């Protein structure tokens, strides 16, 4: 609503009037009076200007009342924000009076723009957007069809338009507003328009038009919710009609209330189903500028029962246009003609018409879910012709789409179908109840019965228009076929007497007039059989239930007999005959009887009838036996059986008079043992066959027994295997054995020799006993044998067969067959052995009887010795009593010996008993009773330990006797010594007696020492068992004191310490290979004498605070000032292994002391300055190699510093030495020092002493050490290697040293030219300081005690052209806690610093090393080939020669242990290769510099040291491709590449006493050589590594790494720490 005041509104209207050429009424009157000609001219102009407006308004609409729609349209397009904010429904009211029409609304009110729009032609304020109805801009002018004046009062505005339709008005009055007085309006009315009707207006017609407005007017308006019409005019009573809307989801209700003078208020409601569709991408149209979307709405009218209201409905363009022939309302933003009653044929409208059809189709989904519309929505389908071509397009599209979609319900109201898939049932297709003869087709059948819910008069005709049709003959047959495929077909479930069958039969007979239908019917199961089944007659043999007038037996398979009941209907009999049913011949029945038996389920009665039928027609039977089953007796058997199937066992008659009939042994209950083993036939067979007359001269029972092989008496053998005992005989043997012998005798002709063992073990009754006894242990009760047994008083339970107790001598031959079962039939060894066993079990047996039996047994010693031995495994040796009052005792042979020492009372000595002296042959020769031996003595010793709780002196004496006797046993053994057995028994059972503690212990708990040496947990044997020394040391391997014992002893001595004894014990410990684990017990042992500054001695453990003097000068400086270990320098050196293992390496003064140097004066030495500057590249490379961060971060800057350094000589170099102890520092100044370094900015100054002697010390040691520390190298000893560089004569020597040590190169740092390089000569060698011509210890090798990588470089005196030799250990370092400086500290003799020619001293345990080498050789000889590629090979023999490998290779010379390990490994590989018989392979191929160490072995005593240049441990030039072919065979080389080649092999051996996974060392030279020899095809040189592991152990073996350079790249070998530490990888 406008916010202008009324005055402002009047001014605006006046201005608008003037703009449109209008003059006020007063002005017109003035001109008419004063200037009439001007007024005339003005009116003429207005007339011409307004002619077009008037003409458009006159022709705008066909009806005068069309203005109502325009006003409703304007009201819909207005705004109702005020009403909405107040929850008011937007409304519009028309009040018709005789002379006017008043239109009220609660819209927001006119704005200036609205007023200007209605004061113009072709202009509108309505947005160019979807949803606005107006489009012409002149619709408002249509009110002048009925009015001459229009008064608008809205907000502050009150103005009017005047136009006389039939007068001389110029037409511009319709657009020229005139201010009017403001009138009062009711509350809530915000806009009122009053139409002053023309005098010529037909108010009656207006009333009729108003009352005829469609009630659907509001249906598609978005804003207006209520429309009211009030009619009060002359001659008519007052009438009021109101329309309003309500909606819920897709339903809209239109409410109409009508109030008439005489009928009162009448209300009604119409419901509509609303479907909406939003349309996008609309075609462009000039009337829809900037609009490309629209909405299509369909309203389907419903009655109160939600059924479709079938009436022709309007089409809407928001407001009703006209009815176009459809039964639903159509609304969209159509582009209408000027009359607004129809639409143009434009792309825009055509698209909307298409979308109308899509919206209809879209609505169907909702209809189908509605309980009533789901069947009746089809009534909205347009069936009548739509005459308008434009609107008919909807009908065409709908029919096409509906016909092709599954939208209709079948009879089961399940899934949806297309109309052309549904069928209409006719009466002939139904039963007497009106139901379909056959159920409908199941999904996904092609057709279905139409639902009965569809109205036959209304819906069915519509459905026919979209494809519905009648049920055809084929449709009916399809349903018959489907019904027959159901689980319970109607045809099969109907009673045979039901009329349904006759109706169907008649129908089918009529169908059979067509041959194709006949064939179809023959494929259907429509013939009932007597077994209840229904079959298909096509290609089937179906028979009537009789054959030649005789009933065919029931239950026969594959014999299709028509059900008798089905033949009661003549229609069905006719149908069956037409389908091919015939009678059956008897010859077809026999195979069917077989088949019936095969399928199972035959009843006994059926079986009897089959047998009777077979017997009656047995002359027609085939020659082959029928495969049928017989019924069991049902008393003895339950299962049917095939009488011809041998695995079913024998078949017996259920009743028989035979004395040995099987039925007599069974009785009335089949034993479990015989179930399924034998069969008894059904007695009814005999009963039925006995009733039959003879047929072809054969009685029925005789034919039955003969034909089915039925027996009377038990059969000895199985029916299916004549070599096996029958189950029935086994049963008799087990449960009725008292008759077994008679059964065997009666059927002996069936006996098989394979049954002997069974019958021998069968138990039978015996005389004088209630027990059963095995047949092979029984005796034939002959009178002679019975008399002997009786005389000895042993007849009770002796074993005479009870079944034959009445046998006489002359009838014995009848039972001769029992001999094969072991039945004793005469006096023999078995007879007397049985008597002995009976005597042993009879407590009343006299001793004389036993020895009489022994004497008789001795007669049979030669042929029957084995049988006698077996029996005597029991307790059958009688030991007579020592007096007449006691009884003798029965003992086993194991508790007896024939002879032994008198003190040996552990077993009975039979030779010493009088009664046995005449039985030597029986007991010594036959029963092999031995004299007391090793096992007896061990058992006696064990018995003493287990049984004696208080061992007396006499028992102790026996124990010593036993030890001595066992020792003698080891000496007396001729072939196999019992040493291992004795040792094992003593280890496991602890058989060493300790008299002191009265306890027993094993050898591992003993030491061979005097009683004065008592170690915890150890028994010192030497004093107690002095005479048995040989036994304990040689047999039991009792050890002498070892490292652990000495450590315990040290701990004991430390309780009351004595320096001398402590020192001695420590030296003893150092004689062993000491490990941190071994000395862990000494952690808290106060065994270290420490001298205090006061001179007092204090005993401390290793965690105490003290220093260790390892340099004499430091000892002199700090003694008396700090706490020091009170051992001399020599003693410290001797104790070095123990001290370092105790972790005291850091307390050595050489480690703990810190030196600070100063210098005064000095002069530059040009020669030394130039020499060291030239060597700056080497110094820089060393520093980088050793991990200097300064060089790593800026190598070029450090190099420049070194190139610019100055070397000064001075006598003013001094130092101060300091050490920290107990938290304080002790500093002592010294007057002289060897070296001082000073750097300011980039200038480096080096100061060395004036003295040449001191200069040599400085250049060799102090200068390189301090210089490297200055550049950040932490290891002080690393500088010793650099000392060789400092003293080298020329850069050639420098380069060789760098190469030998594997020093890395640095990019950008190059070696300078050196004109002074000369070949090495003796004279040059003599110029090298003495300290550098000796051993140079490289810090770049591991210093691990197992695999120390300290190379030894020695000069070859007398060989000027000979290169320096590198002795490189071959095994990698284990991880230990030993300091890396252990073998490099001063004062230790090394191979390079010894006074000899650089050779290491002889091994300290040459005999042990010799034994190790001997074992290595024997293990290598046990191998016959190389391992396959990727695998290892281990020596087959166990390397257990009784000592530790570490002891064999130990040495006090640092590094020597590793050389020994390496040499032993090389020997192992050499011996293996030698055993392969390689052509030309000799000791000359072993070119290792450490090989000579195996010369301690006798076989290699002539082996000389290799003096040549070492390229590999073993170098072999292959001959005739021998080794190459072997490597190809083992998978290392490819035959296609290497076949026929004979390269030179460089074999590097790497050895460890550890496992294969232990890392090994690879020098720079070795690394370079393997890289140079990497294989990329066949080559002349091949490099390979042989890894020897577990040296000296039982699992000693090796693995071959062919082409290690390639393995490194493939991760088969992992190189770490600058290529020196190598471990096996995961690659190939």
TrEMBL record:
NCBIfam families (alphabetical): P_loop_sacsin
Region of interest (Disordered), ranges: 1308-1375
Bias type Polar residues, positions: 1326-1336, 1345-1362
UniProt cross-references to Gene3D superfamilies, sorted A to Z: Histidine kinase-like ATPase, C-terminal domain
Name assigned to this protein: Protein NO VEIN C-terminal domain-containing protein
Record PANTHER family: PROTEIN NO VEIN, WU:FJ29H11
